[in-house]
């Protein structure tokens, strides 16, 4: 694969997406009126009438995709709603308890940064905030998961998206100021609170998807599976039952893929020296992709943040200090639907995102906010989905996957653009094409800039039922500039294959 691939991928994606855009002008938005939830559990006949906007027939416009029948399409399923309650004192108590629990474990295993006292706390307030030099993966994956723990403490005790973000922010602030010897870190506060909120809400939605699909009284197996998705929420359910469960939280549509496979091979090139490395793979790999609230679904309602989101995770077991991994989350925080979903539809609005990418030549991360549009059109047996997104990155970071010299990374504001296409060929195959471009200044650390491109093509063929096989090609390019060093230019290509389990409705 040559360096022309990203530009060609971007052109193809742009042209195909533009083919969908003219339909927007002709489309009329559906006027959806949210029904009042039943007080507890209604009879089957009444429930189906009350919950008609959920698509009780399971008909989502004939989308060509392997899908299960949604639970609310079963006449025996009884929609439910519990009286909404919240407990702020419990949420804050759990946030502080999580902080102390993590500190105790860290202190018990002998980490020097956990040897705190009144003097270290005072120094943290006097010295002020810094940008730390901790491990990239601890900062970008570990801290968001920590933030998700705080988030679930509030979300599972009756609080909404923004209130739960406050819990993540407070939990991170307490840790940074009081629970470590080192000075409080700006980058940790951002990734823990914002990254933790987006990760926490996405996983909380999946937790509720598993739980609520079993109705008002889910089986112990469902409760155990849900606990694994969001442990703090699962603990609160065990301790308080349905006291803070509130309304049923099931999407009208979702699609998911679980991948188990292998990185077959690839290559990485450094254009400063002309050296090419071909020792990429073979490595085992695991990953998943969830699309929640599929654009174009006729009964999709966009009332709350993250009623639509896209989340993917991938990890290759490379046996290196710097793993090949990615976590990509984007969610609609404010927006509206387009069309009625009868052959054409979509959504548009303001998106928030949290990206972490680590490929053989670069690592990139960013907290983004910006406008986007996602459209769908169906022509008989062929269905095309397209998404375009342009975001500012108030906080971004990036650098070399392998250390080339001291502090070989940038922190600063920036921007990113994203184009994605997914074609569904009847119910047998999907072809995904995506392209991302990141530009990150070094205004916060190092100076100059990072310019990074990432393209991905994946073909998935369904073999039987939900079982499929996938082949993937990833391409990455990095150009970096530093004030007192030559510019860096690198690229890499990776080939992968996997068994894929397809789910959703």
How does this structure look, described?
- This protein has 505 residues and is α+β, with helices and mostly antiparallel strands.
- It contains 10 helices and 13 strands.
- Strands 1-3-4-5-6-7-8-9-10-11-12-13 form a 12-stranded antiparallel barrel.
- Helix content is 29%, strand content 37%.
- The protein folds into 2 domains: 88-240, no CATH class; 254-504, Porin (Beta Barrel), CATH 2.40.160.
- The protein is globular.
- The chain has helices at 5-20, 22-26, 44-50, 88-108, 118-127, 136-155, 161-178, 186-212, 220-229, 231-240; strands spanning 254-270, 275-277, 283-292, 309-317, 324-338, 344-358, 362-379, 382-400, 409-425, 429-441, 449-464, 467-482, 485-504.
- Residues 128-232 form the DUF3943 domain.
- This is DUF3943 domain-containing protein.
Indicate the structural class: alpha+beta
Q: How many H/I helical runs?
A: 10
Q: Give me the CATH fold name of the largest domain.
A: Porin
**What sort of overall outline do the alpha carbons produce when their principal axes are compared?**
globular
| Gyration radius over CA | 23 Å
Overall number of domains: 2
Quaternary structure annotation: single chain
Pfam family, one: DUF3943
Keywords: Signal
InterPro entries: DUF3943 (IPR025079)
Organism: Anaeromyxobacter oryzae
List strands and helices in order, with pairings:
Layout: H1 5-20, H2 22-26, H3 44-50, H4 88-108, H5 118-127, H6 136-155, H7 161-178, H8 186-212, H9 220-229, H10 231-240, E1 254-270, E2 275-277, E3 283-292, E4 309-317, E5 324-338, E6 344-358, E7 362-379, E8 382-400, E9 409-425, E10 429-441, E11 449-464, E12 467-482, E13 485-504
Antiparallel strand pairs: 1-2, 1-3, 1-13, 3-4, 4-5, 5-6, 6-7, 7-8, 8-9, 9-10, 10-11, 11-12, 12-13
């Amino acid at each position: 694969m040559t360096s022309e691939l990203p530009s060609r991928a971007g052109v193809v994606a742009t042209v195909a997406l533009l083919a969908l855009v003219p339909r927007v002008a002709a489309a009329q938005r559906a006027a959806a009126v949210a029904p009042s939830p039943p007080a507890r559990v209604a009879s089957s006949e009444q429930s189906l009438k009350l919950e008609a906007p959920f698509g009780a027939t399971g008909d989502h416009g004939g989308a060509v995709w392997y899908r299960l029948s949604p639970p609310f399409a079963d006449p025996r399923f009884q929609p439910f709603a519990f009286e909404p309650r919240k407990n702020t004192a419990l949420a804050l108590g759990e946030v502080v308890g999580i902080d102390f629990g993590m500190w105790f474990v860290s202190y018990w295993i002998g980490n020097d940064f956990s040897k705190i006292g009144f003097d270290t706390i005072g120094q943290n307030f006097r010295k002020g905030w810094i940008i730390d030099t901790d491990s990239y993966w601890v900062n970008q994956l570990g801290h968001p998961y920590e933030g998700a723990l705080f988030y679930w403490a509030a979300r599972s005790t009756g609080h909404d998206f923004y209130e739960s973000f406050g819990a993540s922010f407070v939990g991170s602030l307490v840790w940074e100021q009081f629970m470590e010897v080192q000075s409080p870190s700006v980058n940790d506060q951002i990734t823990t609170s914002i990254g933790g909120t987006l990760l926490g809400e996405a996983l909380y939605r999946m937790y509720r998807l598993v739980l609520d699909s079993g109705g008002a009284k889910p089986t112990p197996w469902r409760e155990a599976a849900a606990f694994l998705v969001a442990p703090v929420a699962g603990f609160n359910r065990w301790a308080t039952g349905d006291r803070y469960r509130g309304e049923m939280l099931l999407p009208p549509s979702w699609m998911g893929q679980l991948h188990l496979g292998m990185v077959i091979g690839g290559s990485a090139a450094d254009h400063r020296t002309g050296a090419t490395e071909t020792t990429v793979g073979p490595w085992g790999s695991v990953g998943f992709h969830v699309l929640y609230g599929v654009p174009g679904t006729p009964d999709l309602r966009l009332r709350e943040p993250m009623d639509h989101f896209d989340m993917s995770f991938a990890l290759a077991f490379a046996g290196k200090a710097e793993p090949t991994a990615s976590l990509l989350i984007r969610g609609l925080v404010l927006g509206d639907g387009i069309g009625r979903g009868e052959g054409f539809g979509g959504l548009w609005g303001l998106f928030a995102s949290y990206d972490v990418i680590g490929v053989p030549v670069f690592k990139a991360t960013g907290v983004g906010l910006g406008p986007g549009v996602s459209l769908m059109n169906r022509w008989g047996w062929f269905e095309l989905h397209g998404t375009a997104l342009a975001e500012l990155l108030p906080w971004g970071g990036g650098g070399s996957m392998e250390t080339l010299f001291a502090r070989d990374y940038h922190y600063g504001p920036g921007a990113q653009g994203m184009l994605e296409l997914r074609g569904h060929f009847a119910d047998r195959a999907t072809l995904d094409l995506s392209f991302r471009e990141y530009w990150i200044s070094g205004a916060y650390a190092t100076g100059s800039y990072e310019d990074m491109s990432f393209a991905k093509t994946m073909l998935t063929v369904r073999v039987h039922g939900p079982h499929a096989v996938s082949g993937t090609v990833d391409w990455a390019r990095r150009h970096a500039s530093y004030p007192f060093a030559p510019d860096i230019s690198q690229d890499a290509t990776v080939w992968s294959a996997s068994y894929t389990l397809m789910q959703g409705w």
